[in-house]
Specification:
single chain; 418 residues; alpha+beta; Helix Hairpins; BirA Bifunctional Protein, domain 2; three-stranded antiparallel sheet; 18 strands; 40% helix; elongated
């Protein structure tokens, strides 16, 4: 949730929200409701104090004044009840408006829509198309079967088989070891969470259409372990010496992929179920922009070690999610498509999610303040597999296993047709 006090007085803060496509009328309406809520809250508190005082005076009143005191106290009680009803209504209206307003884009973020991103750097060569696309070679080698999965579960599901499974778990173990060396604590997280956790983490209401619901149990399947990692310190106060708290979450993830009908229906790029290793940081507000660069550096080291050609982009304001103040995408080169495709990203949510979650840092100088939260994908397993299929494919129709992964999959050097 945004800082409502700051919204009313900080023109730059407001401009960062407008950069994400929120119009002035919506912002003005929110400010007006917030001011009304503050006024009602103040008057309600004053009435409550008066009512409490009136109740105390009844016991000390003389017999001739007692009845008038009782009547006065009853009148105050009735007025207080009316004021409390109004406060409940206006605060509910304020919450509904506030949770739909996104975190302001950072001033360093380019303005514009999805095509207005800024390329920060390009690493590695843009190769020609390999003999087979990632979807074709998975089928030829017998390591990805979407046809049977479709018969069982519908579109956007896949069986991963044979040596690709060994490669998948090699990716998981190797990535976790890399993150441990970088100061992250590994975590296997719950993949079913309550609705309020998705609200507090910043995913609802904007991304609700992407999330699978288990309605009978009032639970939701997470699309990323970021949700559960965000809740790990929910409602807690961390000490300055603890920060940054860095967690590496491993989980299976689920996404409905609403709005993508007809896109990427082949292979592993856009599926409903996938595994991922996610980075999450609780940072001191003074250090969060440096922490974002640390997450990006970690992701780039993983790309370099896997020998994958890529580029880093800064996502434009109009293409940012609700919670992100700034986001980098790392896009891998896909030779069969002759274009870059997103493989990982990392974002700074500043205090947007922490305000809902009530996660604070105890500061000896300025008192408790909200932490900043950040997240980044260390390894999206399915997409990384297809990136390896594309970029480590040899002329004879085999896949060379990246050298760093070979010790984690029994020394396997190549995946060949069965």
């Amino acid at each position: 949730m945004i800082d409502l006090r700051r919204l009313g007085v900080d023109a730059d803060y407001r401009a960062g929200i407008a950069a994400k496509g929120v119009d002035d009328a919506e912002i003005d309406a929110l400010i007006a409701v917030d001011r009304h809520a503050r006024a009602v809250r103040t008057s309600t508190e004053l009435l409550r104090a008066e009512a409490n005082q009136a109740s105390k005076e009844i016991g000390h009143a003389s017999p001739e004044d007692r009845q008038s005191k009782i009547e006065g106290a009853k009148d105050l009680k009735d007025r207080l009840a009316s004021a409390e009803r109004e406060l409940t209504e206006v605060e509910a209206e304020l919450t509904d408006l506030a949770i739909s307003v996104p975190n302001p884009a950072h001033p360093s973020v380019p303005l514009g829509d999805a095509d207005s991103f800024r390329v920060e750097r390009v690493v590695g060569a843009q190769t020609e198309a390999p003999p087979l696309s990632h979807a074709e070679i998975g089928d030829v080698l017998g390591i990805v079967d979407t046809e049977r999965a479709v018969r069982m579960s519908g579109s956007r599901f896949a069986y991963i088989l044979g040596d690709a499974v060994r490669l998948q778990f090699a990716l998981v173990q190797w990535t976790l070891n890399r993150l441990i060396d970088r100061g992250f604590t590994p975590a296997v997280v719950p993949v079913l969470v309550r609705e309020d956790m998705l609200v507090d983490a910043g995913f609802f209401p904007t991304d609700r259409q992407q999330v699978y619901a288990v309605e009978r149990d009032e639970l939701f399947l997470v699309g990323t372990s970021e949700v559960a990692l965000a809740g790990f310190h929910r409602g807690e106060r961390l000490s300055e010496t603890e920060l940054p708290v860095r967690l590496a979450g491993y989980s299976t993830c689920f996404r409905r992929e609403a709005g993508t009908y007809g896109k990427d229906t082949q292979g592993l790029f856009r599926v409903h179920q996938f595994d991922k290793v996610e980075m999450f940081s609780y940072s001191h507000p003074d250090d969060s922009w440096a922490e974002l660069e640390y997450l990006l550096e970690t992701e780039e080291q993983i790309f370099a070690d896997l020998e994958l050609p890529y580029r880093v982009i800064t996502v434009a304001a109009g293409d940012l999610g609700a919670a992100a103040a700034k986001k980098y995408d790392i896009e891998v080169w896909i030779g069969s498509e002759q274009r870059y495709r997103e493989l990982t990203s990392c974002s700074n949510y500043t205090d947007y999610s922490a305000r809902r979650m009530g996660t604070r840092v105890r500061s000896e100088t300025s008192g408790p303040e909200l932490v900043h939260t950040l997240n980044g994908t260390a390894c999206a397993i399915g997409r990384t597999l297809l990136a390896i299929f594309e970029n480590h494919q040899t002329a004879d129709g085999t896949i060379a296993v990246p050298e760093v992964l070979r010790p984690y999959c029994g020394g396997l050097e190549t995946i060949i047709p069965r």
